[in-house]
Design goal:
The chain is α+β, with helices and mostly antiparallel strands. Helix content is 28%, strand content 18%.
Length: 100
């Protein structure tokens, strides 16, 4: 008689942000709520998309962004585009979208 064992691996990833990559709190007119805006590098780290893809959507004005001393884009806008176009199978924890 053969015995079967099931092994499950869980992993946790920590993203360390530079001071200039901390999220900015801003109202997103497309999401119609106050959201965290991240640099394109951080959005790409969270979603697994390339930075170039994030910039392409920013340049096409498909993602809400602001540019003060740095560019910051709305993660929620990108996720909506990714889901709609099914370019990415994106599973993101909601803690990135809003903060207390």
């Amino acid at each position: 008689m053969k015995k079967r064992a099931e092994i499950t691996f869980e992993s946790e990833e920590t993203i360390i942000l530079n001071q200039d990559e901390l999220p900015m709190r801003e109202y997103c007119p497309r999401c119609q709520t106050s959201v965290n805006l991240f640099t394109p590098r951080v959005v790409s780290l969270i979603t697994g998309a390339s930075e170039r893809e994030i910039f392409r959507h920013v340049e096409a004005d498909a993602i809400y962004f602001i540019e003060v001393d740095r560019l910051a884009a709305c993660l929620g806008c990108y996720l909506r585009i990714a889901r709609r176009s099914k370019e990415e199978d994106t599973t993101i924890d909601n803690r990135y979208l809003k903060s207390e």
